[in-house]
Design goal:
Blueprint: E1 12-17, H1 22-32, E2 42-46, H2 52-62, E3 65-69, H3 73-83, E4 93-97, H4 103-136, H5 150-154, E5 159-163, H6 175-196, H7 199-204, H8 207-237, H9 250-277, H10 291-299, H11 316-329, H12 335-365, H13 388-401, E6 430-432, E7 435-437
Parallel strand pairs: 1-2, 1-3, 4-5
Antiparallel strand pairs: 3-4, 6-7
Helix pairs in contact: 6-8, 6-9, 6-10, 8-9, 8-12, 9-11, 9-12, 10-11, 11-12
Organism: Linderina pennispora
Keywords: Membrane, Transmembrane, Transmembrane helix
Pfam families: DUF3533
Amino acid sequence: MFKRSVHANNVSLQLIDLDGGPVGANITQMILGMPKADTLPTWTRMDSFDSLDSVKDWVRRSAWGALVINPGLSGRLDNALYNGTAYKPNEALTMVLSSGRHVISSIMFIQPALSGAIARVANQYSLKMVDAFQSQQMGLGGADASKTNVEALLRPIGYTSVDVAPDGFGLAPFVTLFGFLCMALCTLSFLITWKFSSFTFFLKVKFRDLAAMWIALLLSVSVFLSLHFSLAFLAYRGPDYGIEAKKYTAGSFFKIWFTGAAVNMAFATWLFTWFLNLMPKFIALPSLVTVIPNVVSVATTPEFASRFYKIFYCLPFYNGSRIFQTVTTGAYPHSGRYAGILIAEIIAMLICLTISIWLRQLFVLRGISDMHGWYRWNTFFHGMVPYYKDAAATQHKDDESQIEPASTARSPSFDHESIDINDAQSDNVSLQTGNLAC
């Protein structure tokens, strides 16, 4: 993700002092006084815990990591310095991790930040102890220093590391990434085939049946591919997965199966919505808004990014990977939120896909789009269906040709018989000037 290292300060690490003595106070002051940088997580102090177990449980559920100053550190160190009692430096601090929350981010940012803080404290405190011993013999006023435990003097601060949600194997960062990506690429071949071979469906199948058919096909493909994804993880995990890892049960298998199906269903409907109405020359364009952002959201996490990339929280790959990590490691158990986002995205994408199917069928039936998805204004358009406007104009001309205009209409005519006019006969009535004869 772009400049993710300079946004590491968006994440906070907790410092928890269970010692309550002068040593714990000095260590707390050293860590909180370290220079802040954008490339390092921010340190915050928390005092609401009473045991190491409560800290572990809280880190697993809610945090990235914490540094715990173990109880009784001041007393053990004083006894070792003044009375020469046995001292184990590794019992001074406990580094608590939750790598299952996001393995890559934990390796790149969380573990180095915790280890760096511990190394800084250990070096500073060791130098401070040696200087005090040389100048004042540890405040004993010149008393016999042979009672001092040398290991406690030279190495007063050590640590132990606890991963409360381990993945258990070295390739854990790539399981969900390549699993979801393989499902997406397999689905991609089906979607491209359906785009270029579905022309006759739009001509012969009703819209309702067409939408139901494609939704059922996408669901079937998603369930089928996700089953293989879950089986592949089960086979890869094997008997040597790790004794600290969360137990893998039949319930875990089905959770991974249906999580993968939901992820692929959301992704497939999203991608097919683009494919239906795009011309072939833009067939690779949806990868910029589907494949690439989804892959990046799994490879890193939006917490280590600028505000713009918070949009990755709604991507199917990201939410599916969070559920997967919770199922396999128990880290950050907020699966309900991630499942809700996936379901909402599936519903939204189904609505968009239904609208896209309707538009595609409308364009085909009206002759706006051809078999391959080219539109009329494109050079490569080769329509098999007459353009609806041209068809309407032709029909209008045919209707007009059946009725002759009034100016050229033939008026009714009659065939008059010829009438002969003969000269007046004697028996005819005639009218003469001044004389009326019969």
